Amino acid sequence: MAKITEEVIETSYSGNIFSRLFVYMKPYLKRMFFCLCLVLLITVFDLIKPMLIASAIDNYIEGYNHPYAIVSQEMGEIEYHETYLTKHFEKESVTEFAQLIYYEDDYYFFQGLSLKESEILNKISQEELKDAVLNGTTLTINRVYQGEKMDEEDLKILRSADFKGIIQIGILYAIILLLKVICNVIQTWYLQLTGQNIIFSIRQQIFKHIHSLPLRYFDTNPVGRIVTRATNDVESLHQMYANIIVRLFSNAILIVGYAVVMLSIHLEMALTCFALLPFVLVLSVIFKKISRKIYRVIRTKVSALNTFLSENISGMKIIQVFAREKEKYEEFKERSQDLYRSNMKEIITFAIFQPLIVLISNLALAFVIYKGANGVLDDSLTVGTLYIFASYISSFFSPIQSLAEQFTSLQNAFASAEKIFTVLDEKNPIVEQESPTILNEVQGKIEFKNVWFAYENDDYVLKDVSFTINPGEKVAFVGATGAGKSSILNLIGRYYDIQKGQILIDGVDIKKLSTKQIRSAIGQVQQDVFIFTGDIRSNIRLLNDDIQEESIIEAAKAVNAAHFIEQLPNQYDEAVTERGSTLSAGQRQLLSFARTLAYDPRILVMDEATANIDTETEQLIQEALETLMEGRTTIMVAHRLSTIQHADKILVMDKGRIKESGTHQQLLEQNGIYKKLYELQLYTE
């Protein structure tokens, strides 16, 4: 039944999620733009790194076959046997060249070549040297070109420029890595800071909004679900703001960057790699649709599980009293397994998607190596270019896979956002006027004029109720359970709005008054007293700094609460746990009296205020009631008629209507409902 209720109440959100989430980013757009610029810079670094390595391979590691120009001492980079050589030259300004040829694991140096001869020799060296003749240390190619074998020391001299080039690229590569690390650190810091600021704002907003909702909302929504909205669901948004959005941008830029570079380097190979992209896109779309549905279900089931836990932990005493631990465990196990199955669906979906993307990536890499190797062999592709493609193709599918994974996290965030916005869009039906009437001072006159009220539809709890309570008057409501007594108390504070009739305070319709002024003028003492975690003092003051220490002590003494407070080890600083479990029912009730008196209300409302109090404590409270009610309009609801006999007026209710009215003696003389209730209590006592 709880599962059905959860699914019925939590309807899907139909608004634009992204536009609403974007609103929270607006104060941080400059910071986000700065982070995006850093991401762009990091992306450039990622694109450059394979190019640097490819340059080292083609120009320096495989650069032995690049021709040397024989130049003057001033232009020379290398001095080789009193000859000055360089690899950096303009063809038009050089007339004599030299060439290094690799043959059967040795290097041979050819010099005294013209530019045309150097190009011919280089082309021959790229192919199989069929007409090469080795005579001692001399290699003759095509019976024309002769070169001398290089020993290790000479080879070091000739390749010193290549070595320097590799060192320079290595230093540049290290600088890029360092810059990338610095950019990543700055970006991560700013993103996490921004994410935390946004999440703090959302958490504050939802908590404030929850406080503004009417009691009707809390009647229909369990505590566990509301707590889930303000904690789990809000936290799910943190990853979106701190990581996902920027990473989505980063991966999109990387994909475009890799694609552009590959197309510019070698069109045919690039198109071969991209032939598998449609399969990736189809998989991503399917994965996105499935994962979003699953995440919606998961968020709902997490909420249901939290609701179940909250309810059962709060009712643990009842569970143990009736020995239902085993049954509750089985119920929890069933709900937990339900959530487990939903999570497994998500895991299975991801487990299928990720290997498929990896498979496509490896297939693309295999195509690159196959085609690239053929290109290197037929001299249409350099080894460095092949390295760039091999590196890029692995990196190209990685951000695509990351995009899909981030879409998964994004679906989770969107599912949580839907739940959060559903709460934030909950409207308070109790609407105040833009310029409410402000009473100079609340006197405490209360009037009900033909009031009709129902919690749901036309199931009226109060039917055509009319009465007047004058300032300072003490009025009690009595009647059977469900007669509508507590509903009257809720309506006076405008926690609910009536359907028909009028409620006035000091002659003004409460719909024209400020709810803050109305509620600050009313002090309520209820049967079920809620004590907050903290200490005695904070539970009397309730974060109202206007209440001074003297007022707290005076209020406690006036209602005889000081009698037990001063016996505590830390007195007013004594720590109390949630719901005041370390205090007796009577002590909690005395604290509520002190809390009410400290706020000095003009209207005092007591709903079964002495129902759970022992006889001795009740005597203490009865002594304090006269002080508490003095000069205040007092409204009491009680089943124990002995506690309200001193009231100026008693209103007897039956099935939502006022049947009798008068003092205790007058009602007894009427020989009606009140007398029957009174005699029944006398008999039972």
Rough shape? Answer: rod-shaped
Radius of gyration: 42 Å
CATH architectural group of the largest domain? Up-down Bundle
Structural class of the secondary elements? Answer: alpha+beta
CATH class of the largest domain: Mainly Alpha
- Helix tally equals 22
Largest sheet: 8 strands, antiparallel
Approximate strand percentage: 15-25%
Describe this structure in words.
This protein has 685 residues and is α+β, with helices and mostly antiparallel strands. It folds into three domains: 2-57 and 165-424, Up-down Bundle (ABC transporter transmembrane region fold); 66-155, no CATH class; 442-521 and 643-685, P-loop containing nucleotide triphosphate hydrolases (Rossmann fold, 3-Layer(aba) Sandwich), CATH 3.40.50.300. It contains 22 helices and 20 strands. The strands form four sheets. The chain has an eight-stranded antiparallel β-sheet, with helices on both faces. It has a six-stranded mixed β-sheet with strand order 14-17-18-11-19-20, sandwiched between helices. A four-stranded antiparallel β-sheet has the order 10-9-12-13, with helices on one face. Strand 7 and strand 8 form a beta hairpin.
